[in-house]
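Working notes for the structural subgroup meeting. M.R. asked for a predicted model of this chain before we commit to crystallization trials. I am recording the input and output together here so anyone reviewing the notebook later can reproduce the run.

Input as submitted:
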Amino acid sequence: MWRTIVGVSPSIRHSSPQDNEPPAVVYLPMRQEATNFAALVIRSRVDPGAIMAAVRKEVQAIDPDQPVFTVQTITQMIAQQQWPYRVFGTLFATFAGIALLLAAVGLYAVMAYSVTQRKQEIGVRMALGADGRQVSWLILRRGLIQLAIGLTLGIAGAWAASRALQPLLVQVTPTDPTTFAAISLLLTVVALAACLIPARRATRLDPLVALRVD
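Returned structure, recorded in token form:
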């Protein structure tokens, strides 16, 4: 049957929000394409709860035997369709936050302990005439090298593992550069603090005291 196109509507997402592009949809008059049920979309400036009774009354005036069911607002319908994504999104975000916190705490603890173990070396360098700035830069340089190696391996692993999350993401790329950059910056700040704070404490000690640290 030939159809006459009377207009083109903007793209409307009728299917799952996981679809990158909405599928093609053709709107036909009820007289040309009768169905067993129909959905009414009503725009009103009054409270949605107040207009529901009027809608039922108008439908029953046309056909008293026609049932009216699943009466809800667009906001309620969208919330009902998207609740699984919100629930799982919240869970993933919570677990990711916990994992990031544990990674930051573990990184700080390991690097701070590594600097603390070098107190005797710091004492020797201070006794031989090195100043605090030189010692801090030495500790920081070694920590940055270790951090660069760790970030390189971590980003590569996260980049590969993120491909497995592609089916669960909605309008978000699995390799979001902003997320990778933000996490890398956070871990870099933690590593810098883990190197500088213990190093400054060690440089402020008397070299003889630092030499006697076991």
